[in-house]
Amino acid sequence: MSGTDYTTTPNLGLFKPVYDADDGQWGTHLNSNADTLDSAIHTLQTATAVTSFNSRAGAVTLNSTDVTTVLPPSSTAPTMNGTAAVGASGKWADGAHVHPSDTTRAPLAGVTNGSNAAAGQVGEFVTAARTTNLALTTGVAANLTTISLTAGDWDVNGNVNLLFSVTGSVAVGSLSLTSGADQGAADGSGYGQINVTPASLTYVSLATGSMRVSIAATTTVYLTASGFFASGTCNAQGVIRARRVR
Predict the structure, then answer these.
(1) Most CB within 10 Å of its CB: which of 58, 124, 238, 241?
(2) Are 184 and 211 in contact (CB under 8 A)?
(3) Structural contact between residues 244 and 154, judged by C-beta atoms closer than 8 angstroms
């Protein structure tokens, strides 16, 4: 018998008889092929370890290094929030990965470290004060101070202090979206008024109350004061505060 009456497969060397040229040997070759296949299949069925992998020969037990070599984890930090997507990096996340803190969400628990909410977060606090006297003209509203609020829903309140040098009749403090106006809101919030009993050096402190300011663009809110007095002078100071509620 020679190689002229048969050929072999490239991997297992199975016999492939040449038509009409393998007389007397095809049965032997068929049995040999069956034995070879039986051995190969049995090896696959009973194998407990890879015979070679990752530059190691012989019986190889796969370990975590083998996995990360063939399928390396992502080397970039996880993203925060955004539009949902299945991703296209082809990388897997290590079990010790840490997502960045989502600063766009309000914390569920209140802070205990005395810190301030960041701009844009629920709880953001804005304040301004006038601590020097502003001389008023009787019956004319004047701006004591202002704050600039970015788009959002805010609770705003203020306190106004007025000092009449001789006599006064009415003291007013208000929150206004218009410069130089004792305005408040349409529902009456953000406006405080008190009648003054005539007396020398009358000191009045009144609260404006809270007023909701819900805005879609940056807006200036004014703290205004006015006094009504027949003679003498009237000076005013005040403070305005705002807290973002959403």
Answers:
(1) 238
(2) yes
(3) yes
Kind of pairing between the strands at 234-244 and 191-195: unpaired
Residues 196, 169: contact at Cβ < 8 Å? Answer: yes
**Each residue's pLDDT tens digit, 214-242:** 999 999 999 999 999 888 899 999 999 99
Written as six digits, the tokens of 21 are 């040229």
Contact 65, 41 (CB under 8 A): no
- Determine how β-strand 152-164 pairs with β-strand 211-215: antiparallel
Full 3-state SS string of 34-89: HHHHHHHHHHHHHCCCEEEECCEEEEECCCHHHHHHHCCECCCCCCCCCCCCCCCC
The pTM score is 0.60
Q: Are 244 and 118 in contact (CB under 8 A)?
A: no
- Measuring CA to CA, which residue among 74, 43, 69, 41 is closest to residue 54? 69
Structure tokens, 67: 């996995």
> What is the C-alpha separation between 38 and 50, in angstroms, rounded?
19
More confident: 123 or 4: 123
Domains and CATH numbers, the chain: 6-68 (no CATH), 125-244 (2.60.120.760)
pLDDT of 6 strictly over 50: yes
Q: Which residues pair with 173 in a beta bridge?
A: 192, 225
The Cα 227–Cα 235 span in angstroms is 9
Three-state SS string over 35-46 comes to HHHHHHHHHHHH
Task: Report the candidate in 138, 154, 160, 148 with the shortest Cα–Cα distance to residue 208.
Answer: 160
